[in-house]
Amino acid sequence: MSWIRRVLAALTPGLMFGLCGLCVVAALAALKGGDHGRLDILTHFTPFWLIGSLMACAYAVIAAPPLRVVFGVVGAAGLMASLSLMLPEYLRPIPKAAADAPAQLKVIQFNAWRNNPDISGTARWLADQKADVIIMEEAEPPLIAEVEATTGLHLTCPKCGISIYTRAKPLKAPKVTEPPGQTDWRLRPPVAVARIPLAGKTVTLVGTHTVWPTQPTWQRGQGQYLAQLLDQLPRTTTVLAGDFNSAPWSFARRAEDKLFGLTRITRGVYSWPARSVLKPEQPLPAPILPIDHIYVGSDFKVVSVKRGPRLGSDHYPIVAVVSLQP
């Protein structure tokens, strides 16, 4: 059996180099995602490229001298590429507020999933949170009605594809006109808009659900569409939430961060998937992508942001508490 040991010993460096090399190549290619939309898909999986690069660095420590240099160079290249994509997300400033800050607003962002098998359990959890605002995507009529009945919240735009529930009675909706030139329906994501009073001011709530990054042209067009809608609203007191289907280290997400003129308060909050993509009845131990996001205007400061539990959806809910401090 000694020949088997020799074969395995010979294959191990090769397999490690193949695995780590693939991660490093993907990380380096992802750096060009800003110029090529298809390559931007790779940026969403940067945490995996980072892990592969760290594995190469670790293997360099235990490898024989000739391989040590190879794995060290490969690992360092992947590490630098991955960190250049991810670090800006964790270094950017987010205005904070104390736990007892006044004029607080509790917001839940949740893609409820159109195939949600646990309608009553989902509605009960949402009711238990005592949220001031729930912005929900992919909710079918039975779930929409159940959440409204269970929470006792006011429902806005149940047929918009986005359901907004509010504890305060909604004010008259703001007048928003369709941005000019957007005739292609694929460039117009579903949007719901509502307004509520808070601490003597008016807060504008916007919910949306944009396309996957596999369609970069549509994704870019939908981001521009949303930015043009936001131009018609008072950004200082606006809250925008939704399933944006893009990770914060993607070039598309960072471009929209600038376009929106709001502060994204979800910092690397992993929210998808809660279930296996191939076998939805099979829950997964942990999410792998942060694609659900909440934005706020400059009059808000953040008390807390956290991920909720696994419910009947393939997404986790995100629970944020913000304080209105003009």
Mean pLDDT metric: 92
In N-to-C order, the SSE pattern is HHHHEHEHEEEEHEHEEEE
Q: Percent of residues in beta strands? A: 15-25%
How many beta-strand segments?
11
Helix proportion range: 25-40%
Can you tell me about this structure?
The protein is 39% helix and 20% strand. It is elongated. The model has no long low-confidence stretch (mean pLDDT 92). The chain has helices spanning 2-30, 37-43, 46-62, 65-91, 119-128, 141-151, 216-230, 251-260, and strands spanning 104-111, 133-137, 154-156, 162-166, 191-198, 201-209, 238-243, 263-264, 292-296, 300-307, 318-324. α7 (216-230) packs parallel to α8 (251-260). The protein has 326 residues and is α+β, with helices and mostly antiparallel strands. The strands form 2 sheets. A 6-stranded mixed β-sheet has the order 3-4-2-1-11-10, with no helix packed on it. It has a 5-stranded mixed β-sheet with strand order 5-6-7-9-8, with no helix packed on it.
Short description:
By secondary structure, this protein is an alpha+beta fold. The protein has 8 helices and 11 strands. It is 39% helix and 20% strand.
